[in-house]
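RECORD TYPE: protein structure
NAME: AtuA-like ferredoxin-fold domain-containing protein
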Amino acid sequence: MYPKKRVLCRLIKNVFPLSVAPGLTGIVGGRPRVSPVLKPFFFLYPKANLKVDIHVNGEFAETYKGEDLFLHDDLPIGPHSYRLEELAYTRSGDKGDSANIGVIARHPLYYPYLKKVLTASVVEEYFQHLIQKTDSSTPSVSRYELPGIHGLNFVLRDSLGGGGVASLRSDPQGKSYGQMLLDYKVKGLPDLKSLVD
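PREDICTED:
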């Protein structure tokens, strides 16, 4: 046992749980145990620098070198329109005064089309009535691609009226933003339903 942990264990024996009668430990778990606090360190790493060897059933299959496997500039167009709800699932929430919207394709074949059509500027225009533009030189919406799960993530800055208890809006945590985005009409697509039927 580390010396600091030993000292803390001795100290914790002299601390009574709050709002509980002294000596009562069996019903609600008693005194807290000493445990380390982990602080993760997050960073971005250039995808172009990644090299991953893929093995299937213990045998080498291929190497992935960070290029975008879903980059299709030559996707066919067509006369069909879809509500985003027909092509994707969403989930949203708050990060302070910023909203976060995750969009995941209902089928992997839909992902290249979502990636092509659902840009950061499209989402910014769609939510312009909720975004408070403070700096005209910085985009209010950033898009992050998650090809491993066929998803996109959008961060909408200054879109919650202050966020949390600082906001007077009916949805200060952006929980409905994903549902709102599902109403977006995606146009000019081929018959995507036939691709998965």
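COMMENT: Helices lie at 3-12, 84-87, 111-117, 120-126, 177-181, 193-196.
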